[in-house]
Amino acid sequence: MRSYLTTPIYYVNGPPHLGHAFTSVAADILARQRGRLGIATLLSTGCDEHGQKNDQAAQAADLTAQSYLDLRSAEFRALFDRLAVLYDVFVRTSSTNHLACVQEAATRLNDAGLLFRKAYEGHYCAGCEQFKRQSDIDVDGHCREHPNLIASLIREENYFLAIEPFREAILQRILLDPSFVQPQSARAQLLALLDEPLEDLCISRPASRVPLGVRLPFDSNYVAYVWFDALINYLGNVKWPHRDFKLWWPEVEHVIGKDILKTHGIYWPAILLALGEALPKTLSVHSHWTGEGGLKMSKSLGNVVDPNKVIDTLGPDALRYFFARQMRLEADSAISTGLIRQTYVAELANKLGNLHSRLLKFASSKFGGRVPQRGILTPADKEIRAAILLAARYWASPMKLEDIPVHTTAQLDAVQHLNRYLTEQAPWSLATATAPAERCRTITYVAMDCLRLIFEALWPVIPSSAERGLMSLTGQLPATMMSHWLPCLDALREGTLLGEASILFPKPDP
Ligand code: MSP
C-alpha cells in the first residue's frame, strides 16, 4: 500500500503563518499515522515562489527576487522543521526541476492543440492571483477573500485551456466516488461549482507584467500562470513525466484549505485530464482558523498568530496538539495564543503530564525505579485496559483528515479515564507495609502500561513528547512503533529501569 500526501505550496509574500503551519502539520499527522502501519508514504510541502504578489513583496523588501525567495522559503522550511513535519519533498517552484516539469506540461498541452490565444478582460485579484467574475467583486472593487485589495481591471491577450470539455468526467468522478472529495460539504460545494458555466482557464501571463514565472517554451513573451505552475508540483514531486511517477500516482491525497477548493477540484482535474493523467485519489479539505472577531487569518488582513512565537513559549507539540484537537472540516474555528495556551495547560500539562509524572514518581519511590510486576487482574483493571486499547485501536487503521480531532479527543478521554482509575484504585494507599503489595504493584503496572499505549497512539500528534514519555517508561522506543505498529497490552516489561520523571509539559509563566 502507498500513500502520497501533499500540502498546498505556500506563497512566500510574507512569513509563514499559522494556517500554513496547520495544513502541513495535519498532513504530517496523516503521514506518520499511515507510515507506521506499514504503508509507504511520501509527504510533500513547499513554497509557491512565482506570481505577481511574490514579485511585489520582493520589490517592497528591496531585494532581488532570488534572494527574497531564498530568504522566505528558508523561513517556511525552518518552521516545518521546528514543528517536526517529516516532509520527504520540500518543493520550491523556482527550482530547475520544477521549471522543466512546468515547461513539459505546457508543451504537451500546446502540442495536443489544447491551448488557444484570446484577449481577455477581467478584474484581477493579486491576493488570489486569479481573475474574478463580476459577481465575485463588491461595489468597491474588492473580492470576498481580500477585502483590503482592489481587484483591478486588466485587459490582455493570453493562452487558455478550455475547461468545459472536462466537466462531465470531473462530475462523474465526484458522483461515482463519494470519497473523492471530503468532507461531504466540500463535495457539495464542488458539485454546485460544476453547475455553473466553466470559464476557460487562462494559463499564461505576459512576462512583461509578471516577470516572476516559468517562461512558456513555445512563446517566451509569456510565463505560465502561477496556479498552473504551482499545481504541476504535485506531479513533479514524484518525477513526472518519468514513468516512475506511477509508483505514487494516482495514490495521492491533496490536503488543502477550503479557499483553494476550486483550483484543486476543477482546474487541477481538468489539467490532469488534458495531460492524459489519472485524477488524484482524494481531495481532503479543511476549514479555516479564524482570528479574533471571526475574521479569516491572512497576511493581507494582518491578523495572524505567529506560530514561531507559540513554539518559543509552549513548544511544537502544544501547537500540534491544539490543531489536532480543535480542527474542524465543516466549520471555521477560532484560534489565538490564549486558546492554545489554555488547551496546553488544561489537557497536556494538567491531565497527560500530571498522570505521567504522578505515576513515574510513585513507581520510582515504591518499586526501586523499575516497572513493577503485574499480578491477577480485577474487573476494574480489565475494564480500563479494554477502554484504553479500544481508543488506541482507532489509530491502527488508516485515518482520514476528519478522524484526527475525533481520535485525538478519544485519547484525551482515555487519559481522563485512566486518571479516574488511579484515583479510585489509589495504589498509594496500598503501599504501606501491611497492605497487599501485589495489588499495589498490579495497579501501577496496569496504569503504566495503559499510559504507554496512550503515548504510542498519540505519537503522530505529539511526536517528541510521546517519544520522551515512552523513553521514560520503556527505556527505548518499541521497534515496531515506526513501521508496523499494532496496539497491544502488556508490552511494558516488568523490571525495566524507569527513566527520570522529567516534566513533559512544563507550565508556562503566567
Ligand atoms: N500558493 C497557493 C497554493 C498552491 S497549491 C498548488 C496558495 N498559497 S497560500 O499561501 O495562500 O496558502 C493557502 C493555504 O494555506 C490554504 O489552502 C490552507 O491550506 C492554508 N491556510 C491559509 N490560511 C489558513 C487559515 N486561516 N486556516 C487554515 N488554513 C489556512 O493558496
Characterize the biggest β-sheet.
6 strands, parallel
Rg result: 26 Å
What is the overall pLDDT average?
93
Structural class based on helices, strands and sheet pairing: alpha/beta
Helices, by number, come to 16
Q: Which molecules other than protein and nucleic acid are bound?
A: 5'-O-[(L-methionyl)-sulphamoyl]adenosine
Into which percentage range does the β-strand content fall? 15-25%
Strand order of the largest sheet: 3-2-1-12-13-7
The best one-word shape is elongated
Helical residues, percent: 40-55%
Distance between the termini: 47 Å
Secondary structure: number of strands? 15
Point out poorly predicted stretches.
none
Structure, explained:
With 510 residues, this protein is α/β, with parallel strands linked by helices. The protein has helices at 18-35, 52-60, 65-82, 96-111, 167-176, 184-193, 226-231, 233-236, 261-275, 307-314, 316-326, 337-366, 379-393, 403-425, 437-458, 463-474; strands at 2-11, 40-48, 89-92, 115-125, 130-132, 152-161, 181-182, 201-202, 204-206, 215-216, 219-224, 252-257, 282-286, 289-290, 333-334. The strands form four sheets. A six-stranded parallel β-sheet has the order 3-2-1-12-13-7, sandwiched between helices. Helix 11 packs across helix 14, helix 12 packs antiparallel against helix 15 and helix 13 packs parallel to helix 15 (437-458). The protein binds 5'-O-[(L-methionyl)-sulphamoyl]adenosine. The site of 5'-O-[(L-methionyl)-sulphamoyl]adenosine has 19 residues, from strand 1, helix 1, helix 7 and strand 12.
